[in-house]
Every structure is written in C-alpha cells, then in structure tokens.
Amino acid sequence: MKVKAFSPVKHKYRVRSRSNPNEFHIVEILNDGQLRCDCVAGFYKQECYHKEKIINWLLNNDDEINTNKSERSPRQTA
What we know:
Layout: E1 9-16, E2 24-30, E3 35-37, H1 40-43, H2 49-60, H3 63-66, E4 75-77
Antiparallel strand pairs: 1-2, 1-4, 2-3
C-alpha cells in the first residue's frame, strides 16, 4: 500500500536576489496561505523583498514587474 506524502507547499516561485543577480531565492506559498522564503530574512521569519515581490506580482497581475525591463517576472518552479 502506497502512502502519499502530504506537502504543505501549494506553489513555489523563484525570485532573483538583489544582492547577487546570479542567484535566486525560492518563495513558497503554503496551503494555509502563508509565504516562506529561503533567504536570510525568511530564515528568521521576517518580511523580505522576495515575499513582497511575489505578493505584488500576484496582486498586480504582473504589471509592476513588467514596467522594469531589466527585471523578469518571478517564475513558478515545479
């Protein structure tokens, strides 16, 4: 009998790091609606740029991000 593992993660997004443009941080939207980020601030359960970016992207339907051509919209990961 197979038992399916429960994952609290509903969606995952990659957001480019501001301090190192060659790195990305993963922002996860949990099933309960909370956001979790793998950056230093996220580790300490503080608000961070990456979570704010995802919130703005979701609320503004990508309008804010696409006005800055040097920055791409966050990518959802598998």
